[in-house]
Amino acid sequence: MKAARWYNQHDIRVEETTEPTPQPGEVKIKVAWAGICGSDLHEYVAGPIFIPVGEPHVLTKDTAPIIMGHEFSGEITEVGEGVERFQPGDRVTIEPIYRCGKCAACKTGRYNLCEHLGFHGLAGGGGGFAEYTTVPEVMVHPIPDEMTFEQAALVEPAAVALHAIRMSKLRPGDTAAVFGAGPIGLLTIQSLLLSGASKVFAVEISEERKQLAAELGAIVIDPTEGDPVEAIRNATGDGVAVSYEVTGIPAVLQQAIDCTAIAGETVIVSIWETNPSFNANEIVLKERYVTGTIAYRDIFPAVIDLIASGQFAAEKLVTKKIALDDIVEQGFDALIQEKSQVKILVKP
Q: What is the Cα–Cα distance from 216 to 159, expressed in whole angstroms?
């Protein structure tokens, strides 16, 4: 079968590889659609970050080159010994977290904070940028008949956004700001409005992304046209209750902190290629909070329901659909060079 494998920075190759067979407790999936994630882009530009190089990942036992792709949907074609909840023909989406089940985080139910955390399509084990992949049964979620495979491939990034809202101190009626209107930022805007935020400010420079943010109900601020912190403060009086940093750009983190009110909160959703610096006194002297979030936990069924019911318009983010053979030039390179692109889906 064909698959896209990460070898190194700027070195992803579409090549023939062995079609997987499900082991006990696993299902085999014919991939329908897979999304290119910001984390995938980080690995392409500045990796390895999550990808194991040299030393195999403790759970998958894999090392680079690895098949990429962790946002995907498809149809089960085969089940391994001991699988009870699924059968061939089931339509599914994947929650791609590898967890050990034994560490302190796992024992308290915070499996997304596992000390050996890995993601299918980043830590090894196969991936969605392939014709077929196999995953443990625990990762699999059924999708309803009314949900398309394209929508189902967007459940994973939508779960990241909704988890960030759940982890924050946001309350109905609060104001919020989202720095960065890429896929996760736009999904965060939708999650905020669904959660009862009274106003959501979106800080973004891309014309296409600004337009999408406005269509979703955000108040758009272009940071090239003035100080976004000043604009948010002028509009709110004392700043927003919660801000969400979704760019991974070091200078933006300070803006996200500065635009919050006294005792406000900044939620860091980004994965960072370089460590940001910030003014700690701006946190200390105003008793602000800074919270980090990673991935999601116990949220996929809720996200599936929100998308299937039309309350979460995740499919609005899709700006291009491509074939697996074109994943580098029309996928990764396009996301770097074309700020008009938001979410690109790949069909293996």
A: 17
